[in-house]
Amino acid sequence: MSTPDETQSRRERTILYVAVGVVIGVLLVLALVLYRAADRTHDAEAKADQLIQALDEAGATVSPSKDQIVRVLGDDGGATCADPNDPLNRATLQAQLANGAGGPGSRPVISDRKILRGQMLIIQIYCPDELEEFQQYVDSLETDDVTGA
User: Fold this and answer.
1) Is 116 helix (H, G, I), strand (E, B) or coil?
2) How many other C-beta atoms are found inside a 10 Å radius of the C-beta of residue 144?
3) Which portions of the chain are predicted below pLDDT 50?
4) What is the DSSP annotation of 61-104?
5) 50 in helix, strand or coil?
6) CA dist list (Å): 147 to 65, 94, 110, 143, 144
7) How many CA atoms are closer than 13 Å to the CA of 92, on its beta-carbon side?
8) Fewer Cβ within 10 Å of end Cβ, the chain: N or C?
9) DSSP secondary structure code for residue 127 in this structure
10) pTM, full prediction
């Protein structure tokens, strides 16, 4: 039995080895990125389950699906936890607690205290370090049981 003669030049073999090395390196980096993404997805799904359970216990109707909650809130609370105590975020919240008219007809209203419960639950689950300050802010708002439910 004999070994076949080498027909490729040293340069061709070097190019082949470098190309294979680069492909393996790219696949390793891709595997690491996807592994971390899968881990985040697992955390996001666990937090979404926790939020759905908390909303259900609070008597709220959970209309978005688990997949929608995972896509919107992710594993870090998304926009809700991107500094909920920032003055601009509070102003946005107050604008939503209005009568719904646009322009000069817009007026603040006494909102039902249940309206803020969902946001409080999101903050409690996704960014609990922001909860105490946000709770103080919510307590300063004038709310009441206006729906009677």
Assistant:
1) helix
2) 9
3) none
4) ---S-HHHHHHHHTTTTGGGGS-TTSHHHHHHHHHHTB-S--GG
5) helix
6) 25, 19, 11, 11, 9
7) 9
8) N
9) -
10) 0.67
